[in-house]
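Q: What structure does this chain adopt?
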Amino acid sequence: MRGKGSVWTFKYALLNITYFAAFCTVHAYAAVYLLAHGFTNTEVGILLAVANITSSLVQPVAAGLIDKPNPLTNRIYILASLIFILLGAVLLLFIQDNKPAIFVIFASIYMVQFAYMPVMTALCFEYNKVGCDIFYGLARGLGSAGFAFTSVWIGGVVERRGVSVLPIVTILVMIASILVILSFRKPAVVTETGTEADPAADGRKAHNNIGEFIRIYPAFSLFIISSTCFFFAHNMINDFMIQIVRELGGAEKELGFSNFLQGILELPAMILIGIVIRKVSARTLLLISGTAFLIKTALLVFAENLGWLYVSQSFQMLAYAVFIPATAIYVSDTMEELDQVKGQAFITTSITIGGVFSNFVSGRIIDQLGVRAALTVGSVVCAVGVIIAFAAMRLPAYRSVPSEHPDR
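A:
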């Protein structure tokens, strides 16, 4: 099947569609589900923060293990994650009034789903390098479309039938995801000597020591801080979107449409990124993305009705939709092959850490001062991130040392 790009793109697109359909039911509707089970905004924030902290610890460890030669591959890690989420969603069906149990199970599902996100990206580049020719932008964009259509549909269903449908949809999507990942069989890359290619055979190595990693990749390492700031604001909006919608006079149906709008607008941006990257560097795209995150958040501070919300969500096509493929391309182009899963994991870790701080702060601010106060804090943090990003992108992407290959 090597070289059949349309087949591999189709399978990888299905993996993304199912991932983001479940991301919608778990992440986008987390506050809706938890509030319906008696959690306060502060408790929702604490739960999501705990899940994000755990995820930020798991991601680099898992990436380091995957980067090393051992049986734990990207595919196996994804499969294990899918099974875990499936079992957790089944448990939620039978636990309706036990808040401590819901806390533990939902936080675990939320954590695991975030933790395998970078591995999804790494899987694409792993298979591309053995000739599978996956069109990443199209597949990832269709994943966003999957999120969009799931959101616009599930919003109305939840409004009519309640939050109990959320774990049911998650179960169905996890079953589909498992079937898709089981279809992935990577072709072996054989060298002229007849042996399977080894990425470390030319003397390159993984930089698992954090100090060494920062020294080798200075621009990326500083940019991680700025992306944490971007996703402080981004996660604040996503995790507490139902409160923003209600502040502006809407309900679950409008939440669904809002999520649909931002999700569907990601599709054209992610498809076109492969063309744009030929003329605009990944560094420049990351700066554009950070600026769009800031505009998106700041608009909500002054929003007077749902129309303003939809204008804000339209900036998703320059913010998140550019950030995700641009960071993937940046990591693939500037890092040694044995560091790339780690690089993707650090990106997702920065997203997660941004969520940690956002969850701890946002729920409490909303409970005590209201939604607009929280959005103001988010805008300030995001502005700091933009400043750091411009500073980071003035640094070298790759700093070689005498014992390595200075080909960046």
